[in-house]
Fold this sequence. Notes:
The protein is built from six helices and no strands. By secondary structure, the chain is mostly helical.
Amino acid sequence: MIDFGFDKLALIGAVALIVIGPEKLPRVARTVGHLLGKAQRYVADVKAEVNRSIELDELKKMKTEFEDAARNVEQEVSQATGDFEKAWTDATGSAGAIEQGGGWEPPPPEYKHPKKNWRLKRGATPQWYKQRQGVRTHAQSGAARVARFRPHRPSSKVGS
Length: 160
């Protein structure tokens, strides 16, 4: 990296003051500062993009490793299942017993209620709880609701 000391910066400033002039020097310095800031931001963005691409490549490698491991586990499990089923059929001898008329029979189907329970159609929440919580149980028009909550007016007497 270029090493600028105080003496070199002072020399560059003096030459710039002579060449550019004292009137234009602040504007030129401000422009140079803006350009240096943009360059630094651009370099930082490029570094961040490179880091993201490196991380993405690492994640892709990890993904392929996990997929390979999952495939291996799946193959081992399917192989172990096949071996177990083969050993089970050999040990129980169920294939010959079923052909001869004996062996295992599936249980009869369980009784299922026809689901005609009238209690299910009503709400499970008790009425007293709904009343305490202020849940409306009846439909009411807007005008009826306003009339219900309107303050009561005393009736006017005739002749007063």
